[in-house]
Amino acid sequence: MIDPALLEILACPACKTEVKLKEERLVCVKCGRRYPIRDGIPVMLIDEAEQPAAEG
Prior knowledge:
Largest sheet: 4 strands, antiparallel
Distance between the termini: 34 Å
Strand order of the largest sheet: 1-2-3-4
CATH topology: N-terminal domain of TfIIb
Radius of gyration: 11 Å
Helix content: 10-25%
Strand content: 25-35%
Structural class: alpha+beta
Number of domains: 1
Mean pLDDT: 92
Order of helices and strands: HEEEE
Low-confidence stretches: none
Shape: globular
């Protein structure tokens, strides 16, 4: 779905940390934001990201 070479250079625009592919989203390993992938293209916009669920 996503080219592995592209995945290596992508980073979360909010905290500049690595993202991992999980299901059909790119998930930041630090802040937990989930970025959608539309038509095979990662949408790396903070406004488009899903916030992580609040713990507690």
